[in-house]
Write a structure and sequence with these properties.
Blueprint: E1 2-4, E2 14-19, E3 28-33, E4 36-41, H1 56-60, E5 62-67, E6 75-81, E7 93-98, E8 103-108, E9 113-114, H2 120-128, E10 138-142, E11 148-152, E12 157-161, E13 167-169
Antiparallel strand pairs: 1-2, 2-3, 3-4, 4-5, 5-6, 6-7, 7-8, 9-10, 10-11, 11-12, 12-13
Length: about 180
């Protein structure tokens, strides 16, 4: 059975379409914004058998929309924070996958790149922060200037790798993470 909104939501040319139930029992939500179509990706997709592909808060606190554009062979999933799920923003994350070269990249429009949770870089930084929070709650990014940053969102703490290769806290000035954690 299919349903759709009668009136536009947020923008004059945006509508939601619902299909329930599908053969696997899942609700399908599609959005039409102008001439573009998007499909909501359930958060369980990002927690497959090999473990999560992203930090936990990124999976549970964002809505993920798959672009259904037949004009492009590059896949894209845009992620919006749940508190502003309909608002376009340069801070929303775009996960793009190019099957021609087999790579996936997660970036914001203002140039931040999410560091892969399974990379050596992520492992080294999250290991330094392990006494403060578990790796599944650490967000590590690379800015356009090449600065690596880590955020512990649950504690509202942020760090960056300084010129001495120390993790310096940008929330509490002149504090660094000691390499010898007890």
């Amino acid at each position: 059975m299919d349903f759709a909104t009668r009136n536009a939501i947020v923008a004059p040319d945006s509508f939601l379409h619902f299909q329930l139930p599908t053969s696997d029992g899942n609700l399908i939500i599609r959005a039409k914004v102008g001439t573009n179509f998007f499909e909501l990706v359930p958060d369980v997709v990002f927690c497959q058998t090999m473990g999560p592909d992203f930090p936990s808060s990124f999976i549970t606190e964002y809505a993920h929309w798959l672009h259904l554009s037949p004009a492009s062979n590059i896949g894209c999933v845009t992620s919006h924070p749940l508190h502003s799920v309909w608002q376009p923003s340069d801070d929303n994350w775009d996960l793009t996958f190019d099957p021609a070269i087999g790579t996936a990249t997660m970036k914001t429009r203002n140039g931040l790149t999410m560091v892969d949770i399974r990379s050596k870089t992520f492992g080294m930084i999250s290991k330094r922060l392990h006494s403060l929070d578990v790796p599944s709650h650490v967000h590590i990014t690379l800015d356009p200037n090449g600065t690596l940053s880590a955020k512990l969102l649950r504690y509202k703490l942020a760090f960056f790798v300084n010129e001495n290769k120390d993790l310096e806290c940008s929330t509490i000035r002149d504090m660094v993470v000691d390499l010898n954690q007890s």
